[in-house]
Each structure stands twice: as structure tokens, then as C-alpha cells.
Amino acid sequence: MAEQGEEDREYRRLEDCEEDSPPGEEEEEQLLLHVTEGPTDSWHHVKDLDISLTPPHIYQFHQRNGFACVLLSDVLELVQFLFVVTFSTFLLCCVDYDVLFATRPLNHSHVPERAKVTLPDAVLPAPQCARRLRGSGWLLFLLVLAGAVWLCRLVTALRRLVGYWEIRSFYIRALGIPAEELCNHSWQSVQARLLALQRRQPLCVPRRELTELDIHHRILRFRNYTVAMVNKSLLPVRFRLPLLGPVVFLTRGLQFNLELLLFRGPAALFQNTWSLRPQVKRAGARRALARGL
After folding, report:
1. What is the Cα Rg of the chain in Å?
2. Could you tell me where the beta strands, DSSP code E, fall in the chain?
3. What is the mean pLDDT of each run of 10 residues along the chain (293 residues)?
4. Where is the composition biased (Acidic residues) (predicted)?
5. Quick check: bond before 56 cis, omega within 30?
6. 76 in a domain, yes or no?
7. Is residue 291 included in any domain, yes or no?
8. Is 285 helix (H, G, I), strand (E, B) or coil?
9. How many domains does the chain have?
10. Is 0.85 surpassed by the pTM of this model?
11. Which of 95, 92, 73, 70 is nearest to 146 (CA)?
12. Structural domain includes residue 206
């Protein structure tokens, strides 16, 4: 009977599930994954549990209030970028500031000399504006660069939207939360359904049961590392200024560069979203890695 039951089931070997194991467990295990019959979804038995738990996925989808809000936000960001570039170009090339600030009298309209200058009086005709634009090489270069940045942002937004659409299906079909009811569910409620789904139909086969702490660790992993490095004075964010004393300086730009350097760049400490690179774990190589960094 046992042999017959084994024949009715299909087993596959899960090779990469050790990426989700907690730090410190280095031994390899051979895990057998039971594949149920019938249609399977893309979120069943994933190799890397971080795929479903870090932005732009379940947590960010909930924090951004669903697919419609995400789509509207991304579209408005792209439109905002185009508006800023277009309006800046207009201000640089299509406005006669001598006329606008009344340092030169109007020479293209029949108004008295002391009449009030209006905005249309200071706007150059379209042909003259185009000539000024073509005559400025550095401005053309900046426009080409801005166009390339906008295209990159467009591609990134489209890729994000594809991922968010899959997470929308995950919320509806796996967690049982319709799109119109997402705003009524707290993150604790979503997390409880996620843990229940893991117990009922595993997302992955980890070495221990998925808990709230596991989810929090995956969502806040890089932030926790950053906080720890600040607490240990490893990041240069505290300075002592004359008369003002100690101050903390951490702008968004500096934070982005630190995250790119430490967590997301080609020389980052992590080889993926969970495990550190083997070189970092070796004490003898840390001084050389620090010099390279």
C-alpha cells in the first residue's frame, strides 16, 4: 500500500530552498517537494521567499493601496518628469527676460512705453525659440540625457506594473482579498492570511515554520543593517561642527548611495537578498574587502 501510494505522487528535488534558511545553518539538506495535481500558480513553492515578501511585492503593494493607486502614481511621476523638463526648457529658451523685467522696451508690439508688461509680451515666437534651442549644444545634450532617463524610468515602471499585477492576482486568488477591499485590511490582517496560506499550501518549503519575525526580517533587512551600522558609528552620518556641536547629516541622496554601495551594487555585501557573500564571512579577507570598498 505504501509503495502504491508513492507511485501516485510526483516528487521533485528542491535545490535552492536553502537560501531562505536562517543565518548560521550551513549544512545542506535534500528536500523533497510534493507537487500537487491540477493547475499551479506562479507563487506556489517559490525558490526564494523574498520574491513574495519584499518590495515591489506583497508589503509594498499593500502600502501603496493596490494596483490602481500604483498605476496612477507611476503615470503621474512620468508626466511630472516630462512637465519639469519641458517647462524648464521653455523658461530657458522661450522667454525674453529683458522684456519681462523691463530692462529693454518692447519692440514687437504697439503699446505705450510705460505700459505694464504682460507675460505674452515676454514670450518669444516659436521659430525664434527653436533657433535658440538648436544653438545651445549643452542644452540639447541635457535634453537627450533627460530623454534617456525618462525612457529608463518608463521601462522600470512597466516592469514594476507587471509584478504588481501578479501580486494583485495573488491577493485575490491566494489571500482572498478583493482589490476594492484592500484598503479595509491592515498589514497585520494580510500577514495573518499569508501565514495561514503558508501552513495550508506552502509558498516554499523552509527548514522551519514561517513566522511574523521571518517576514519582518525580510522586509526590514537592509534597514536593520543600516540602523546597526549607524549605532556602531560605522557610517559617517554624525559630525561635530564648531559652535553647533554634534549634528546628524543623512540626505536622501547620501542614503541612496550608501544603499547602492552596501546592499544593491555590484560590490555589495549581499550576493542575493538574503545571504552574505562568502568572502565577507571570512575574517582574514575583511581588511582587503574594506580597502576595496
Report:
1. 28
2. 11-14, 31-34, 238-241, 245-248
3. 46 41 40 39 54 62 90 94 93 84 62 65 84 86 94 93 88 87 89 83 62 82 86 84 86 87 81 76 84 81
4. 16-27
5. yes
6. yes
7. no
8. helix
9. 1
10. no
11. 92
12. yes
